[in-house]
Every structure is written in structure tokens, then in C-alpha cells.
Specification:
Blueprint lengths: L4 E6 L5 H12 L2 E3 L4 H8 L3 H7 L8 H5 L10 H19 L2 E4 L3 H4 L6 E7 L2 H12 L3 H22 L12 E4 L4 H8 L1
Parallel strand pairs: 1-3, 1-4, 2-3, 4-5
Helix pairs in contact: 2-3, 2-5, 7-8
Length: 190
């Protein structure tokens, strides 16, 4: 079966969002990233601002706080409700049309489909730091902190809601380095 859905998981600063936009544009298919926040908000009954901060990331307090978050009488936390709404939106989008979906555990949510190409994009530290400093107009130390915090929260969210480890190559069809550096790689192989 031909692949009609591409999911892109990525390290912060790796250029995954840009790559996803370019792939969708070149293939002439839909691109979903932050533009699905309003749909998730509508399904969950929560504000788009809350969804933007919490739909892909764990709480800033970490996995322990995540596991012990307040729960309703059914045992679901607000984070669980957000994840379920996000899951429903992603499943609906995948049924509707060929598309590229950035993050939001889409690779795991769509794991039972044969028409999905799951990509993980990582990057070398200097290139990621440079991209973050340029995009967010921050100093190097702030870029490193943003990268560490965001990736930690993505990893915690992914590991909590899936039975997989975020960034582990065997979870994806394809893993890419956003900017391969052959001379550096050769030096490490010697």
C-alpha cells in the first residue's frame, strides 16, 4: 500500500517543522501542526491556549507530577482528556486526506495503519542551537535550555502515552539528521 500519511517527530531545533512544511508543499498534500489546535480544543472543551501549551508536552514538573495529576471520577486527568481529543483529531485527519502531521504522538496514534511513513528528525547540537538562536532571537545558553526543556517534555509525554521510547530508531520508518556532517561523522568512526 502506498504511504499517504507522513508523521514527523523531531528534536527541538532540528528543523522538523520546516522539513514537514516543505515535504507537504512538494507533494501537494495537507500539512498539520499547530493548525489543529483549535480542533483539539473543540473536542476537549479546553481553550486553544491551554492546548497549545499542553497537547504535545508534559507538564513542566515532570513524569511524577504527570502520573499524579488531578483526575475526574472516571480516573482521567485533564492531560488524558487533551490526549484523547488529540488522538481523535489525528485519526480523523488521517481518514480524510493524505497529509503530513507534525508531532503530537501521531506516529503512535496511527501505528496500526499500513499507509503511514513515520519519520524522526534529530540534529547535531551546534546546528540546533544556531537554528534556535536565530528563530527565537535568544542567546546560546537560553537556546540550550529551551531545547533541553522542550525535548524533555516531549519525551515524557510520548513515553507516558505510548508503550515506546521517544526518539528510539526502531519506532520509526526513517530517522534523519537535519544537516548531516560527513567529515565529523568520519572523524567519529575512526
Amino acid at each position: 500500500m502506498a504511504k499517504r500519511i507522513i508523521t514527523i517527530s523531531r528534536e527541538f531545533g532540528s528543523g522538523g517543522r520546516f522539513i514537514g512544511e516543505e515535504v507537504a508543499r512538494k507533494l501537494g498534500i495537507a500539512y498539520y501542526d499547530k493548525n489543529i489546535i483549535s480542533q483539539i480544543a473543540e473536542k476537549s472543551g479546553l481553550s486553544p491556549e491551554y492546548i497549545q501549551e499542553n497537547a504535545e508536552l508534559s507538564p513542566k514538573k515532570g513524569l511524577f507530577a504527570y502520573a499524579l495529576a488531578g483526575r475526574d471520577i472516571t480516573g482521567k486527568s485533564v492531560e488524558d482528556m487533551v490526549y484523547e481529543a488529540q488522538r481523535k483529531v489525528i485519526l480523523d485527519l488521517a481518514k480524510k486526506e493524505p497529509c503530513v502531521i507534525i508531532g503530537r504522538n501521531a506516529d503512535y496514534i496511527l501505528k496500526d495503519r499500513d499507509d503511514v511513513l513515520n519519520v524522526f528528525i534529530h540534529g547535531d547540537m551546534p546546528e540546533k542551537i544556531q537554528r534556535i538562536t536565530d528563530l527565537y532571537n535568544v542567546e546560546k545558553q537560553k537556546a540550550v535550555k529551551m531545547m533541553e526543556d522542550t525535548d524533555k517534555r516531549r519525551k515524557t509525554n510520548y513515553n507516558f502515552y505510548t508503550d515506546q521510547n521517544w526518539g528510539k530508531a526502531s519506532n520509526y520508518t526513517l530517522c534523519l539528521n537535519e544537516k548531516p556532517n560527513p567529515p565529523a561523522m568520519l572523524g567519529r568512526m575512526e
